[in-house]
Amino acid sequence: MAKLLILIIVSFLTFFNSFSANADILVIVNVKNNSSSMDKTEVSGLYLGRYQAFKDGSLALPFDSPAEGETRKEFYNKLTGKSVSYINAYWARILFTGRATPPRQLDNDQMMIDMVKENPSAIGYVNSNAKLDKRVKVMLKL
Amino acid sequence: MNSRLIFQLLLVNLALIFSISHSAAAQLSDTFSVNGFGTLGVTKTTDPDMGFRTNISTDNVTNDEWNFASRSLAGVQFSAQWNDSWKSTVQLIQQKQADSTFSDQIQIATIDYMPTREWLIRLGRNAPRIYMLTDTRNVGYGYLWTHPPIEFYGQLQSNYIDGILASYTHPIGADTLTTTFGVGQSGLQNAYPNSIFTADFSRSMAVSMEYEHEAWLFRGSVSAVKNSNQWATLLRDYLDRYSVAFPGAAILSNELDTANTHILFYSLGAAYNDDRWAIQSELGHVNSDNDIVPDSFAGYLSIGHHFGNITPYIMYSKIKTTSTDVNVPADVDYYSQYDSQLNYLAQRSLSYLNSQFDQSGIALGVRWDINSKFAIKTQWDRKYINADGNHLWWNIHDSSKKMIDVFSLNLDFVF
């Protein structure tokens, strides 16, 4: 009985850990991007429209996953600590001052990877279980 | 910058935007974008006489019957990214407002230059950012309430600034500091039940600093405008005709002289937003040597809590005039009882010179974010207006102390 209980607990923890591992999000850029790494401040600056260029001055084009999806919700929560409702309202304000344009949304991880590998200006994010292409590189793990 | 120049800038901008939209069709979505926003709203109060309005520039007022035009508006924005450093933006808005011209419907018409990623320089028509929400107060989806607190955002404020705006953003550790400086010309309307004053601010200047630390945003700003035109031209002409016989009429005319007057706006604000709380507060002070614009202190505190897509909130707001009333000069006061025109001129003058803000309000409301494009909000306001303190309201005769409830329901959207 004790062995069964331990097995259940271990299975539960394993499942929970694997679930947590699946929830990790990778921030990716094109392999030609001059940046070697990015911190949360840099990525949130690009995704909140504070900066419209990478540190080397080249134009940055951030891409989002679907608006109502869990990945986007988790990405912004881990990156900024804010709710996705707040992020939506925030972007409505920034967009209509004309200061910056919100990230364009792509339908899934594969489209995100394809966009980033084809576009040196792109920055995106995918779930950590997505199969990455050699033409993209990981800048940050959330 | 006059409206003809703004119109020309608008045309140039639109031409540039549409030429890019046709020449770069392959990467159209990366370089050219069309977005819009709007509100469908209804408002109702419990008072049949005092007209509720969201700011003193508008004659779009609500009484005790449902008003579908009170907050309803729509806007569209075109923007084009020419290259890494240059961008164009045009925004047009349609809403019911006093004496609206096509120029008033142009909210933004700018050519933007970004020499480095820290700098943003915008030339043309910008929405001014006197307070936290001044530049986006028409974008209902962007804020929590059905309308920004009228005790703070209902005062005299420009809708636009024609000129140059420069902002510099740089990190301080994990925090961000943004400093913005703007200079140019602006204007506004000050609507009364019997007249609408159009102000011409020949010089307008604003400096603001914003500091972001984790979930916190702190903001401070100072804005100054110089008004160059006469607002009450006809009234002053009549008063001047009496001034030979009545020196008091000359005094009233002088009080109504708005040319070369100055208005200063000071504000401090703080906001806290995380995945549970939405808290925001601002304090503001208006200081003016224009006797039609009362000096005032105003502020508000709003606290909301996110429960998933539902955010209930509570708010307290207050405004109070600090400048003193103008008295009718003794000779005009004495003889106006025998001369109906002189009496009319004196009363009319005082209705402008002694307009005061003295009211507070509490509000309860809830916002439901249906999705990333639509939000429904409903709000109940209870306004406590002190005697002679109802300048925010559309009112002709009643200056008594009042308590009025305001109910509002909005559907806000963006695309």
Task: Please explain how this structure is put together.
The complex is a heterodimer of chains A (142) and B (415). Chain A is an alpha/beta fold and 142 residues long. Chain A contains five helices and five strands; from the N terminus they run H-E-H-E-H-H-E-H-E-E. Chain A has a five-stranded mixed β-sheet with strand order 3-2-4-1-5, sandwiched between helices. In chain A, 43% of the residues are buried. Chain B is an alpha+beta fold and 415 residues long. Chain B has eight helices and 16 strands. Chain B has a 16-stranded antiparallel β-barrel with strand order 1-2-3-4-5-6-7-8-9-10-11-12-13-14-15-16. In chain B, helix 5 (233-242) runs antiparallel to helix 6 (247-255). The model of chain B has no long low-confidence stretch (mean pLDDT 90). Chains A and B meet through helix 2 and helix 4 of A and strand 1, strand 2, strand 4 and strand 5 of B.
Percent of residues in helices of chain B:
10-25%
- How many individual β-strands of chain A? 5
Number of strands of chain B: 16
Class inferred from helices and paired strands of chain B: alpha+beta
- The assembly state of the depicted protein chains is heterodimer
Major sheet: arrangement of strands of chain B: 1-2-3-4-5-6-7-8-9-10-11-12-13-14-15-16
* Average pLDDT level of chain A: 86
> Between the first and last Cα atoms of chain A, what is the distance in angstroms?
39 Å
How many strands, what sense, and barrel or not for the largest sheet of chain B?
16 strands, antiparallel, barrel
Alpha-beta content class of chain A: alpha/beta
Write a short abstract of this structure.
The complex is a heterodimer of chains A (142) and B (415). With 142 residues, chain A is α/β, with parallel strands linked by helices. Chain A has helices spanning 2-22, 40-47, 70-80, 84-95, 109-118; strands at 25-30, 61-64, 104-105, 122-127, 136-141.
